[in-house]
Every structure is written in C-alpha cells, then in structure tokens.
Design brief:
The protein is α+β, with helices and mostly antiparallel strands. The protein has a single domain (25-148), classed as 2-Layer Sandwich (Yope Regulator, Chain: A), CATH 3.30.1460.10. Helices cover 45% and strands 22% of the residues. The chain has four helices and six strands. The chain has helices at 2-23, 28-37, 84-93, 122-148; strands at residues 44-47, 50-55, 58-64, 70-75, 98-101, 108-114. A six-stranded antiparallel β-sheet has the order 1-2-3-4-6-5. A hairpin with a 5-residue loop joins strand 3 (58-64) and strand 4 (70-75). The longest helix has 27 residues, at 122-148. It is globular and about 40 Å long. The N and C termini lie far apart (69 Å). 20% of the residues are buried. Mean pLDDT is 81; it is low at 3-23.
C-alpha cells in the first residue's frame, strides 16, 4: 500500500516542483517592460520564451528559460570567416560568454547566461544586457580583425 501511495504521489510532487521552478523567473512581458524602461525601446516578445531586442543594427535574442535563467544570443551576420578554431580562440579569452557556430545555418554566434539562483531584479537584468552589448562589440571586432588578416 505504501508503494502505491508513492507511485501516485511522485508525479504530483514533480509537477508541483516544476511549476514552482517556472514561477521563480519573470514572465516575458515583465522582462520586456524592464528592458523598455532601461532604454531598450525596441524589445518585443518574438514568441513564448523569446524576446527580440533591437539595438541599432544589432539584434539580440533573450531566452527566458523554464527554470527562470536567462540566456542572450547575438547571431553575427558576417559569417564568411567563421571557423571553429576562431570560435575556440574567442572562448579561450572570454570568461562570461561563449562563441559557437550554429548548426542550422552555420552562422557564428556569441551567448551569455544569467543564472538566477541568487534572485532576479531590474538591476541584474539591465547589467546583464548592458555587459552583453559590450561583449558583442568586442566579438564583432574580433571577427572583423580575423577577416582582415585571413584568420592568422
């Protein structure tokens, strides 16, 4: 009888745990409101869990994960000189971002994560996106400098 109780209780417990994990983060519309209030006026919900942020010529995608963590990605349009070796070279020198080549369209991308274990507030979100903007500037310079030197 104890075994049957455990079998029927465990799925309910897992659903409750998953629901509380999703509730730990902010909803998409809350993130958009925070972004717009902090100067990212062209932030909009692309679809559930994905926020598109346009800043000048650049477009970032902010992914609002199920557990509440955030991931932001910039896809570089200039992909002609992207190689795995160059992405690895970037990754060796960077601590808070990772560069890679997408499997779908083979474009170079750079991404960063914000783990929300310590909580999430407006300042952390603003700082995260602002730091990522600076990362994208360095990343674009890195890709362009290797394009001009043939990658050496």
């Amino acid at each position: 009888m104890k075994f049957l109780t455990l079998v029927f209780t465990l799925p309910v417990l897992l659903v409750v745990m998953a629901t509380s994990a999703a509730a730990d983060g902010l909803q998409d519309h809350q993130l958009v409101d925070i972004l717009k209030a902090n100067g990212y006026h062209h932030a909009q919900i692309e679809h559930h869990g994905t926020i598109k942020i346009e800043k000048g010529q650049d477009i970032y995608y902010l992914y609002n994960t199920f557990g509440g963590d955030l991931k932001i990605v910039y896809f570089n349009r200039a992909s002609a000189n992207a190689t795995y070796a160059r992405m690895n070279q970037w990754n060796e020198g960077e601590r808070y971002s990772v560069a890679y080549i997408t499997t779908q369209n083979h474009r170079p991308a750079v991404a960063a994560n914000l783990h929300t274990d310590a909580g999430l507030n407006t300042h952390r979100i603003k700082d995260f996106v602002h730091r990522f903007e600076k990362t994208v500037i360095r990343y674009k310079q890195f890709v362009a400098s290797h394009a001009n030197t043939g990658g050496h």
